[in-house]
Specification:
This protein is an all-alpha fold. The protein has a single domain, classed as Up-down Bundle (Amino acid/polyamine transporter I), CATH 1.20.1740. Helices cover 67% and strands 2% of the residues. The protein is built from 16 helices and two strands. The longest helix has 36 residues, at 90-125. The two termini are 43 Å apart. The model is unreliable at 1-11 (pLDDT under 50). Keywords: Membrane, Plasmid, Transmembrane, Transmembrane helix, Transport. It is found in: Membrane. InterPro entries: AA/rel_permease1 (IPR002293).
């Protein structure tokens, strides 16, 4: 196949399949394995949460291939917002970008809540307990409704977002060596917990593997496994980082799919192994906590108590980097929207010294901190998953549309079996949205309606000002 380097806009094609797989693993492993696995098992799937991870990985693989093709051909920042705007028009592009706001901003809050949980676990392990009134959300999610918990504020979650926001404003230059260290710490912690936990598993806790449905859709049974797949979908957010490097891959037609599918495969194996250890050492009904891995280690007995500080430190290090990446990514979407005059121009302003979009970064951080301080993990996870799944559906639609409207456009990477794979991606992602439950897609519908109103108001303003 002819090299497509002519279309890479001067970017250096230096990444091979190994580098891309490691990049994907580093971006994917974060809040999912340290946080969401426990609540998904406790609330929806029981030990069968491992099957939920398989289904979510399949959905991500199909969407990731579509993402790769668009990333390889786009010349703009803004990710899925720019791709869908180009293919489906500015209104759909805006709504996808509006969902990306939910993905990055709310995901940062979600991860921060998990960070707070592991900080509390670390302090407990050294005999310094933090007051729960200031380390827990004042609200909890019960049957789709928020209820008061008696706590005042999740202060550590808000503070870590504040610190990450400051770092994002002044500019963060992270070397590849530093990234590799973070990945190494995270993977080492996971492998140690899996290896040690395998000797402490009680197989009786896996029976029944798929708990009987309670009579309510999504609460255990097959429907619970499906709903958990929609929730744990958040665990795979980050694979799109591989797709965005398509222009820098040495052989994008070969290496990008290897990077996406390889990183998804590695992370899926780790997720399944960790979920089996968690549900095999702790009754699944007790796993709905911000730090389920730390709880599992504590249940293994005093003989392995030395692992607990390691788990908390590894989780804190890994989750901190994820929060920072999310708070850096969101302002880029705002920046692209402001350039298209959908958002006010202040979102496109760059700091004269730090050369970062400081205003949009501060706004993002402030909102994320408020969400993290007030809401529980499961509520935030549902918001992130539904918005991201819809964005991935639109990315898949964009591939089909652009193949018809611009069949001769240069594509360094091409999705195989079009339109079959994009259609499978659309159907699977759409189904995962539906099983999240009426409360989840009601919130998604309200979010989209707000976004549409904002778009129409901005469009009317642009026409009146003569800049549309």
């Amino acid at each position: 196949m002819k090299d497509s380097g002519d279309h890479r806009s001067g970017l250096l094609p230096a990444l091979g399949p190994v580098q891309l797989v490691l990049l994907g693993v580093g971006c994917i492993i974060g809040a999912g394995i340290f946080v969401i696995t426990g609540s998904a098992a406790a609330d929806y799937a029981g030990p069968a949460v491992s099957l939920s991870f398989l289904l979510a990985a399949f959905a991500c693989a199909c969407a990731g291939l579509c993402y790769s093709e668009l990333a390889a051909t786009s010349k703009e920042s803004g990710g899925a917002y720019s791709y869908t705007r180009d293919a489906l028009g500015p209104r759909i592009g805006w709504l996808v970008g509006w969902n990306l706001i939910m993905e990055y901003l709310v995901a940062a809050s979600f991860v921060a809540v998990g960070w707070s949980g592991y900080l509390s676990a670390l302090c407990d392990s050294v005999g310094l307990s933090l007051p729960k009134a200031f380390t827990s959300a004042p609200f909890k999610l019960t049957n789709g409704h928020l209820e008061a918990t008696g706590a005042i504020i999740n202060l550590p979650a808000a503070l870590i977002i504040g610190l990450a926001t400051l770092c994002a404003v002044i500019g963060v230059k992270r070397s590849s060596a530093a990234n590799m260290v973070v990945v190494l710490i995270k993977v080492t912690v996971i492998l140690v917990v899996i290896a040690v936990g395998a000797f402490h598993v009680n197989p009786a806790l896996w029976t029944p593997f798929i708990p009987e449905n309670t009579g309510t859709f999504g609460q255990y049974g097959i429907s619970g496994v499906m709903k958990a797949a929609g929730v744990v979908f958040i665990a795979y957010i980050g694979f799109d980082a591989v797709a965005t490097t398509a222009l820098e891959a040495r052989k994008p037609q070969r290496d990008v799919p290897i990077g996406i599918l390889g990183s998804l495969a590695v992370c899926t194996v780790l997720y399944i192994a960790m979920s089996l250890v968690l549900t095999g050492t702790v009754p699944y009904t007790q796993l709905s906590v911000p730090s389920p891995v730390a709880l599992a280690v504590a249940n293994m007995g005093e003989g392995v108590s030395w692992i607990l500080p390691l788990v908390s430190l590894g989780a804190i290090a890994g989750l901190t980097s994820v929060i920072l990446v999310l708070l850096v990514a969101q302002p880029r979407v705002f920046f692209a929207m402001a350039q298209h005059r959908i958002l006010p121009s202040l979102f496109a302003k760059v700091h004269p010294t730090y050369r970062t979009p400081h205003i949009s970064t501060i706004i993002t951080g402030a909102i994320a901190a408020a969400l993290a301080a007030l809401f529980p993990i499961d509520f935030l996870a549902e918001l992130v998953s539904s918005g991201t799944l819809l964005a991935f559906m639109m990315v898949s639609v964009s591939v089909i549309v652009l193949r018809r409207t611009r069949p001769d456009a240069p594509r360094p990477f091409r999705v195989p079996l079009v339109p079959l794979i994009p259609i499978v991606s659309i159907l699977v992602c759409g189904y995962l949205i539906s099983v999240l439950g009426e409360h989840a897609y009601l919130r998604l519908g309200i979010w989209l309606a707000i976004g549409l109103v904002i778009y129409e108001l901005r469009k009317k303003h642009a026409v009146a000002a003569g800049i549309a």
